[in-house]
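Anyone else keep sequences and structure tokens together like this?

Example one:
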Amino acid sequence: MPLGLPRPDTPDVNLIRAGSHGEDVRDVQQRLARLGSVIDPDETDGTFGASTEARVRAFQQQRGLVADGIVGSDTWGALVEAGYAIGDRTLYLHEPFFRGDDILTLQRKLNALGFDAWKDDGIFGPHVDAAVREFQTNVGLEPDGIVGLETLEALERLRADVEAPSRARVREAESMREMTTLVGAIIAIDPGHGPGDPGASGPGGFVEHAATARLAAALARELGRRGAEPILLRDGLDDPSTGERARAANTADAAVCISLHLNDGEPAAEGATCLYFGTDVSTSPAGQRLAEHIQEELTGRMGLMDCRTHAMSLTILRETRMPAVQVEPCFITNPREEALLREDAFVGDTARAIAIGIERFLTPDESGSEEPAAER
């Protein structure tokens, strides 16, 4: 993957990591330097050493990415996006969608002024286009959806308070109040990883993509028993990119999206965690609430160690239009938890806990039950 080009919507290839050398590394270092990072002079010849890795990890953490110190497609895309400031380019609805911090700033300004530009994800999609046109109409400009000098000047004159509650957050709060039942709800289930990117492996050889597929099948059965309409975003030997999975969930008009992954770390590391969309400037309140309900079921009902919920800007959380959560019920690198993942009873209990968490989220009185809705 030539890293001088915008991020392709494909799985990671040509990862840049500790020990890498060359122009791609120098490109990463220069982008980090323009963002204020200081790289050890001994590495600025294109050597990916300890200083570069530390700066990459810090950037990933700040952007809500997995802080592994490796530059893959997500981190590269974030580096490209971080280089855009509002006014650097003319913005409009384009396929593929423009992405960048300039769009994030635009969204925050529009949302603060009461124009719903969707969650602050830095993606110029149809919702941003509609918000721009509505804004232009309100200030007497031609509603062409093009964010050029006149539109930017109008935005600047209004001095939007980007720290105030945004229209996007108000919309999410309103949508949560409209939720009534799990029955009939379309639930998108993403079995994390796939044959081309198998994920982590346990000490006994159990591979993450196989474990998540098994858990996804159990969750689909459990949700079906409760009256929901589950759809799998990966099936069999299919290996769609994360962006393709997000688009499939959007196309299906799913009520929620659940991405299943397994954590990895030291052999003694254990416990469950749930991730929802969030950055250093914005979070999804609906995603956070969904994550909290599922986390409570995994830890309270099943007794798994609580590794808490966390806001992150992973692709599946960022690019889905519905509340989305990445669920990591345990560490596949922990020998005991890897063994549990092979047990039908544990997989079934985990699926049931996640399903109850989803039902609590979709039901106003949060009355998730052990029994399927049709049997109560």
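And example two:
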Amino acid sequence: MKLSTLLSDNKIIPTAIAFVITLIMFFLPNQFENPVYDNHIRAKATVISVDNSMVNHVGLITYGDQVCEVEVASGLYSGERFIASNMLLGKLESDKLFNVGDKALIVMQPNIENSEIIKVTMVDHYRLNLELILVIAFAVLLIALAGWLGVRAIISFLFTVLAIWKVLIPAFLMGYHPIIVGMMFTLLLTVLITMLVYGFGRCFLSAVLGSFLGIIITAGMAIYFVDVFKVHGAIMSFSENLLYSGFSTLNLNYIFIASIFIASSGAVMDVAVDITSAVNEIVIKKPDISKMEAIKSGLTIGRAVIGTMTTTLLLAYSGGYLALLMVFVGQGVPLVNILNFNYVSAEILHTMIGSFGLITVVPFTAITSGFLLTRSKSSTE
């Protein structure tokens, strides 16, 4: 493709902007580096032998110390063998047992004076290579099916991951107001991702405005109903660990509220883009369509979209709590009790408020696309 053709495409500049921002975020320093870990060396290792003599089994619980002989497979000490410790705490969710031939991530603690390794700890099974294969396969398939749009989708994916890791989470940890930070984050994300889809133009403006209004409604409802439901933010997994690790001043309720509209913002954006694209295609096929007809078409399309999207939200949110629900059902807990438990109430909040955002974004986007994408009568003539 010629350079002049590329430059004439209104998506090239937005793609370049998004790529530069993503690159900048990639090189942003980690503001919460722990000096304790600076003297430790992480490496991939192969398990040569295991000693389970100090491992104890009590029913389903396993505790004790598994001793492993490992051969380092990467880094400065590659090829050397060490005795490593795998502490078992009696928690199925965190404990792991190694077998001969397993690949593991280990942490080596060297002596500061002579660099001799004085302690080796088994961290977990080594999965980076498998994760990399999945990421590469995902990128290849996306580009193969979507072409240049797939490249832009990968950039938006990387931008989102880096924005969460380098901007959103550090801002929360530094004590900035979670609701304000969350709103700014979701709105910025909406602008950039929509910009990558449409470039700069009326479709971009229509989808962004519709998404903004839907997200604002979702945030307002989350603020109100979290207080009314009397659900504490500590129901989030590992939130208490966060308080005890030096961040006791964080407001977990505000973080929980922010998590509600952040989690639904992707679906809201998806619905806004779907409606905008559909209305735009209608206007292209029928340039003389009136604004009211275009709005009605957008509403009709939106009804079909939200019919499946609300179910998608329900499945996405409830999937993480299947084990909890199975415990309740297996123990014969009455439904009234289940619906009043804070964990279940929190998931109802997530699902219902997210669904409200999806429903409200439909008329908002239908109106914005109807007014912005249709042409006036004189221009049509």
